[in-house]
Amino acid sequence: MKFADSSARFKTVSKELGVFLASCGLLRAAKSVGLLRFGFPGFLVFVVPRGYNTSDYETAAFAIMNVKRDDESWTEGWVNREIRVRLANPPRIKGTPHKPVSIYNLKGLDILIAQDIAEVPRDVRFAATAVLQIEPPTAGHINAARRLWRKPTFSEEFAASLSQRPQNVILAAALKPTSAETRIHELDEIDAVETFGPSLFDLPGYSEVKPWALDLARDVERWREKNLDWKLIRAGALVSGPPGTGKTLFATALATALRMKLVSATVGEWQSAGALDDMLAAMRKTFDSVNNGKGVVFFIDEFDAIGTRLTRPSGHHGDQYWQVVIDDFLSLVSTLGDGVILVAATNYPQWIDPAILRAGRIDKHFALSLPDALTRAEILRHHAGDALSVESLMDIADELHGKSGAELERLVRDARRAARNDCRELTLQDLEAQLPATLEYTAEQQLRFAVHEVGHAVSSLALKHSISAKIEVRKRFDPEADGSFGGRTIYDLVPDHVPTETSLLNRIAVSLSGMAAEQAVFGDRSLGSGGTIGSDIEFATGLARKLVGAYGLGGTPIFIAGAKDVGDSPLPEALEEEAMQILREQYQGALSMMTAERERILAVASDVMAHGAVRIERSGETKAA
Are residues 334 and 398 in the same domain? Predict the structure, then answer.
C-alpha cells in the first residue's frame, strides 16, 4: 500500500492545526524507515507521543492514505471487519461491544494508531510490517503550520523550545495571531496546576507516609527535568484506616505537594454506570482521562468495592463478574502513562484482591491511624492559627482521645464561630468550651482497667511476645462516643518473622490474659475483652480457627481455605471444636499465670492509677511513662 500523493493529503490535513502537525509526525516516522516513497506491504503500527490526542493522528492517517472515514469500509466496519485505519483501543460506545485490536480483526488494515505500545498485543506487533514511534512536532513543523495559517514564524530557538512542550501548549502558541515569543512566561502557566489546600508537608500527622511522599517528590522533580525515566518511579499506594483518618485529605495534599492535578473517582461511581460493560466503560474512561503525560495524582476511594477473586470459584454467576472487573483493572493499571501516581483508599484492606497489591501495581500500603495526643495538639494548632501554641493545646488534646482529624477541624471551626460572634480573636477558652461533656470513671473502674491491661503486659513479657509494654489508663470518657477506651497496652514486640505453633498459641494467650487477670483479681469478668470486631476475644477466636483450618497446625494437618477466608465464621464441626479447645486451654493457662502473679498485677495496677501510664520491662522494672 502506498501513501496518497502530497496534494491529495494536503487538502484534508490543512484544515486543522492538530491534524496537520499529526500528519507531519506520521510522515516523518514513515520516511525514517524508507516507507514514504515506495509504500509498504501489510500494515504499520504508529505509537503517538505520550499525552498526545490519538484522534488527530487517526484523522491524519485517513488523509495520508486518501481514505474517507464515511465510506463503506468505515460505516460497516464491524460488519465486514475491513477498516484501513483504526485505533488500537477505540473509545467504548455504550450498547456496542468493545473491540480493541487483536490478531483476529486485522482484515483490510493499513495503519494502526496506538496511544501506548502496551495497547498492541505482541502477536499484532509481530504481524506488522513495522512498529514506528512518532516523535513530537519539530521546530520546522511548527513554523510550517504558522506559515500555512498566515502567521509570523517563530525564531528557530523558540520553535525548538516549544516543540518540547505538551501538545496543548504547542497548539495554543501556534494558533496565536501574534508572536508568542514575547509572552513565553505565560506558556509556563498554561499547564500550571491550580492547587487547593495545604501541601502534605505542611500538615501535621501523616508520619507513616511522609517519608515515602518526600522521596516521591524528589523523583517527580527529576522526571520533570528529564533526568529520570518514569519507569523507575512508577508509584502506587494504598492508604487504609478507619473513617476520619484523613485518607482523602492525604490525596489532595499529596497532589498539592507534587504540583499535580488531582483526579478522583470511586469504585461505586463506576458500578453505578450500569451492567458489567457499562461499569468497565466508566472505569476505562477515568483511566484514559489521567493519561495526559503531565502528572496526575489519581485517587480511587472505596477501593475495597473493586472486589476479590475467589481462590476456588464457587460456580456462582457473580464469580465471573469480579474476575472480569479485576482483570480489566489490572490491565489498565499496567498501562498507566508517565506521571500518574495511583492512590487508593479503603477502610478494609483485607478485602482487596492480592494481585492488585503486588509489586509494580499498588505495592505500597500505609495504615493511617487516629492521631495521638501530640498530633491532635498539632492539628488543633494548624487550624487555630498562630494565636495558640502546641504546648498550650496539650491538655485539650488529651481530652479528645479517639477524635479524627476531621472532628478536630470541626471543633476549631465551631470555636472560631463563637469567637467571631463575640467580635474577638480565638482563645484557648473557646476551644475548651467545645470539648464534649465527659464523665469520670470510678476508682474501682479505673483499677479494673489497669488490672486488665497489666494482665496483657505480664503475659506478653513472660511468653517473650514483647520486650517491653506501656500501659495507659484514662480517668474520663465521652458517653456519646461510639467506643470509650478505658485502658490500652502498647507493645515493643519481639520480631516474629516465621511464626511457629507455639508463638501463635502465645498470641492467643496474651489476648486472653486481660480477661484472665480480671477473674484472678476480682473473681468477676467485664465486657472489656469482647463485643466488637478487633476485640481481644475476636482476635483470639479468629486465630484459633486459622491455626486448624488454614495453617494446618491442628491435630490433623488440613487446609480448608486461605487465612483471610478463615476466622470470621465457624469451621466444620470437628475443626470448630478443636479451635474451641485451643481457646479453652490457652485461657486456662493464662488464668493460672494471672493467679500466680496476682500480687504483682495489683502492685503495677496501683502504679498505673497513680501515674496514668507506666512501662514494664522484661527485667521486671516498672517506671512511669
Answer: no
